[in-house]
Structure formats: structure tokens, C-alpha cells
Amino acid sequence: MARLILHVGAHKTGTSYLQRILHLNRDLLGAHGVIYPDLGPNPAHHILTTPWIANPEIAPHWYGPGGPEGLWQRIIADLADRDATVILSAEPFSRMAPRAVDMVDLAARCRRFDDVTVAYVARNQVELAQSIWLQRAKTGGAPPVDRFVAHSLETGLASGIPLDHHAVYQHLRCGFAHRDIRLADYHQLRTGPGGLLGGFCQLTGLELPLDDLAPLPAEAANISPDPLATLLAMRLTHPDPPSAGMVAWVGRRLSQRYPKQRRCIFTQEEIASLVRKFNASNRAVEALSHSGDTAFSVTAAESGDWVTRDALTWEIWADLARGAYHAA
Fold this sequence. Notes:
single chain, alpha/beta, Rossmann fold, two-stranded antiparallel sheet, 45% helix, globular, P-loop_NTPase, Sulfotransferase domain-containing protein
């Protein structure tokens, strides 16, 4: 039977890790009847979303003859009749702006497969939004946090990435049946047996020899930096971007003051506003889930154990400024 697992995100839910470890172990997966295509230019399959979402970073030669449509046609012709499980993984499948994938069209392309499973991993909106902001900070394009939060609350989007998981589900349903969509929570997946990959296998019904897979090298890990340390370091070095060493130094100073508390770029009120905004949609999508034997719920964002942006006193700022001055 030709089976397709379509992993559509969300962004910032361990997708890069899953894509890299599946790509690294392609040969072993193939020996177990699982195909993770090497499409380039990276371990993910973002190239497959370009019929709907233009990506100027992908050079034309990666598509081969016929461009994006030709690539899709070859994938279907080569893989849709094999007695195997094919995994296609790309977060932009679930993007909503400035353009979104046409789910009716996508489902039609996948129809040649005997069975299709669409896997979507949700994350609470506070952590998801913060992680998206951090990703933008890496590239030097992060907006002021208060403006970023206000836009997210107004539109339900963070840099074009949907924070409303129910809206994503409804968009998926434009092309795929309810029975084909599998939902999971990021925290439940990564803390369960086998970690993130084990959780993904349970979600999708995928059987892999997890103990035999080659681990990712340390340099391949996509680990986000300390969020609050990143924000403070950006303010200390503005208008220049902070170095990784500066972010690490600020992180150490914060750890001396708050050794056991997590840190967050948002204020307590911003956290509360994000929770209020998306609480109803989280409950709605949870009610629609039927992810096997595992109950699906979006892990709540608990702010009580966080050091937030509004908790920083002038004393802390002065300490950081003095330290940065003497270290310069």
C-alpha cells in the first residue's frame, strides 16, 4: 500500500529536528519501507510549497525540468504507487500569510496515494509567538515586542505564521477529511516515550527502529537562544546586532539572579492577553481531535514561573549596562 504522511508544521515545534534526523537516516528508513525524499536544497521539503508560496531562496535548478509543477509530477509518478510510506515535511504547508497553500489543490495532488495522513503539531501561543520572534531576531528583523504582540492579537498571525490552531485545522479541512488529520501538542510529543521522534511516530502510526537511528551532530541542533537574554542584548548593543557571546553573557547574568526560573520576552499582561485571545480556539480544536489513544490538548502557558520583561528593574538594567561597558 502506498501511504503518505504529510507533516505540515507548525513552525517552531521541533520540525527542523525531525526533518534533519529523517534526512540523515534516509537509507535506514528505506530499508524499513519508509521514504524520506532528498529534494534539496535542505533536509526539509519547503520546495514543495512553491506552487502556492513563492520562495526566491530556492534556485531554479533544484526543481529540475518543468519547475515546481514538474517536480510535483515526478514525485507522484515515482512514489505514489510504491508499497511504502512516504514522508513529506514542510512547515509552510500551514502558513496563512501573505499567501497560503490551496488545500483543495494539495489534496488532489496526494490522491494517488492509497492512504494520506496529515500531521500537525500545535504549541501554546505564548511560547510559539516568542519562538517566532526569536527566529526573526536571528536574522536581524525582529520588531519591537509590544508591536509584535499587538499585531499577533489583532490578526492571529505572527510573521505570517498562524497562532490560531483551529483556523489551521479549518484550512486543512478544505482539502482533507477529518479522519485523515492528526493533531498533537508539542510538549506532549517531546516529553513522551522516544522524545519528539517517538511522539511523531506514535501520532502518525509510523514504525521505526528508533534505537538504530544515527543521532544528529551537535552542530545540527536548532536550539533557540535564551529569549529574554536575546532581547536585553539587542537593547544593549542597538543599533548593532548582539554577538552570540553577548547573548550568552547576558544569559549568565540573568541566571545568577534567577537560577530556576524560565525567562520570557513578554510582560505578564501580554501573556494574559495571548492566553485570552486563543483559549476558545484551543478548546475548539481539542474537541475535534481524534489522535489515536492519546488525548490531545494544547499545553497551557503558565506564566507564574517565568521572569517576564516587566519584571526587570532599573537595578538589573544598570548592572547589565555596567557589565557590558567593562567587557567592551
